[in-house]
């Protein structure tokens, strides 16, 4: 049974938003399974960024909004060479009348996070620091260093997604989760890839409380549809 209330985050793409606005039943059902909606700003034209949080909030007012500007090298669509622009873009989002509840900033953006923390706190925006490793599963020493970085800048959340290359790769992540999950309001640690698929739910049994699912097509290797993920989590609760 999950040690903390599990939160399922669904990734909002332009297609998902269009379907939600049109009232498509499958999209509406998927949205109802989510506790968090991740606004993937990198997938939307910049001209639409200023109104994005307000548009999604209107669709599902009670859901927590998480803003992300994901670089291509981290599995997103924002050009890698435009990474230095992101600090100014984050600042512009903080100045909008409607703002996301959380910002997801990558490990490489620690300096930006430190600069923006005062403005984020003024807007009551929380910080999730994330790291994506597509080469394999990070070693415990690497995870420990990153957790230390998160604490140093006062991050509210910790997220690491490694890549499972073979069955059983993700097993090493669970001991770290048990030791460290309670240090953060949000904690997410799992393996991408088909052989890491089960870790997206199994991690919740060890103390993680945030996982990610697909509202339509999977946007990351091994991602599970949110409706299937909700059923899997419900079964965990029933079997306790």
If you had to describe this structure to a student in words, what would you say it looks like?
The chain has 240 residues and is α/β, with parallel strands linked by helices. The protein has one domain: TIM Barrel, CATH 3.20.20.70. It is built from 9 helices and 9 strands. The protein has a 9-stranded parallel beta sheet with strand order 7-6-5-4-3-2-1-8-9. Helix 6 (140-152) links the parallel strand 5 and strand 6 (157-163). It is globular. The N and C termini lie close together (5 Å).
Q: List the strand order in the largest sheet.
A: 7-6-5-4-3-2-1-8-9
> Residue ranges: pLDDT <50 for 5 or more in a row?
none
How many domains, as an integer?
1
Secondary-structure-based class equals alpha/beta
Overall pLDDT confidence? 93
Q: Do you know the CATH architecture?
A: Alpha-Beta Barrel
N/C terminus separation: 5 Å
Shape: globular
> Any idea what the radius of gyration is?
17 Å
Range of strand content? 15-25%
Number of helices: 9
Assign the CATH topology.
Answer: TIM Barrel
Instruction: Let me know the number of strands.
Output: 9
**Strand and helix order:** EHHEHEHEHEHEHEHEEH
Helix share bin = 25-40%
């Amino acid at each position: 049974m999950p040690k903390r209330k599990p939160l399922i985050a669904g990734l909002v793409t332009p297609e998902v938003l269009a379907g939600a606005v049109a009232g498509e039943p499958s999209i509406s059902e998927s949205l109802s399974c989510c506790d968090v909606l991740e606004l993937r700003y990198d997938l939307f034209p910049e001209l639409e960024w200023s109104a994005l949080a307000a548009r999604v909030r209107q669709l599902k007012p009670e859901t927590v909004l998480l803003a992300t500007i994901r670089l291509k090298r981290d599995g997103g669509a924002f050009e890698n060479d435009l990474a230095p622009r992101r600090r100014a873009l984050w600042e512009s989002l903080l100045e909008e009348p409607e703002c996301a509840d959380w910002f997801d900033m990558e490990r490489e953006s620690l300096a930006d996070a430190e600069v923006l923390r005062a403005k984020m706190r003024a807007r009551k925006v929380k910080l999730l620091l994330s790291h994506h490793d597509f080469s394999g599963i990070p070693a415990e020493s690497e995870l420990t260093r990153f957790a230390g970085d998160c604490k140093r800048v006062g991050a509210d959340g910790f997220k690491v997604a490694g890549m499972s290359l073979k069955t059983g790769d993700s097993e090493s992540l669970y001991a770290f989760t048990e030791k460290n999950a309670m240090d953060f309001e949000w904690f997410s640690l799992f393996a991408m890839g088909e052989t890491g698929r089960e870790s997206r739910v199994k991690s919740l049994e060890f103390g993680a409380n945030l996982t990610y699912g697909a509202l339509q097509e999977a946007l990351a290797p091994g991602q599970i549809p949110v409706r299937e993920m909700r059923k899997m989590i419900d079964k965990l609760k029933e079997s306790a």
